[in-house]
Amino acid sequence: MLTLFHYPMNAGSRFIRLLLTEYSVPFTLIEETPWVRRREFLQLNPAGSVPVLLAESDQPVAGTMTICEYIDETRGSMSRDKRLMPSDVFGRAEARRLTSWYLDKCENEVTRHMVRERVTRPLMPTEKGGGSPDAGALRAARSNITQHLKYTNYLAGTRNWLSGDKLTIADLAAGATLSILDYLGELDWSGHEAAREWYARVKSRPSFRPLLQERVRGLPPSAHYADPDF
């Protein structure tokens, strides 16, 4: 069985969990606290970042997109019409582009700052950078949320799914990223009805259920977080 080293409020970790579950791949989870930098974990991934997949023969596969490509090659290619990577070259390019939009651009502009200031900083020891949230960092991150909701709304309003006619890795990446902001109550869906309807479809999928049931210690989710019909 595969083993996934993850952090619950890390978008890449959530994305890989969704991907594995969509393909019905059994796996076990090991939570890795990002700032601890365990020696055993660093031997698997010297970068010290999650997610890391311990694959067959205990071979570590590190990095979100590296893991995604590994899963597609070993599981997705055998899934035929249920494959989450489009069959045509331009479809794959668009799915990868949007996956990067959410896991890289939205992560760097919004999500990681929200998680650091609201989730991890209060838990971290002072010598590791812990303490009270940085109001300026939160303000800057919040100012970037609207553009990502607008873009999601545009995509959802002009396509059946974000990258085209079928569910792809792009939808899982977007869902993984936005679900963290949704947990924190940072998303205002008013005026973004297409995005809201798309997100309701994504989080209604069985693969999302484990994520919606999890809770961060000392930080309850927004009232509608676990409700697919919010």
TrEMBL record:
Keyword set includes Repressor: no
Q: Which residues form a coiled coil?
A: none
Which superkingdom heads the taxonomic lineage of this protein's source? Bacteria
Domain GST N-terminal residues, every copy = 1-79
Q: Please tell me whether the keyword Cell wall biogenesis/degradation is annotated for this protein.
A: no
Occurrences of domain GST C-terminal (ranges): 88-222
> Per its record, what are the GO molecular function terms?
glutathione transferase activity
- BP GO annotations: glutathione metabolic process
Q: Which UniProt keywords apply?
A: Transferase
**Which PROSITE patterns does this entry report, sorted A to Z?**
GST_CTER, GST_NTER
Question: What is said about its interaction partners and assembly?
Answer: Homodimer.
The protein in question is named Glutathione S-transferase family protein
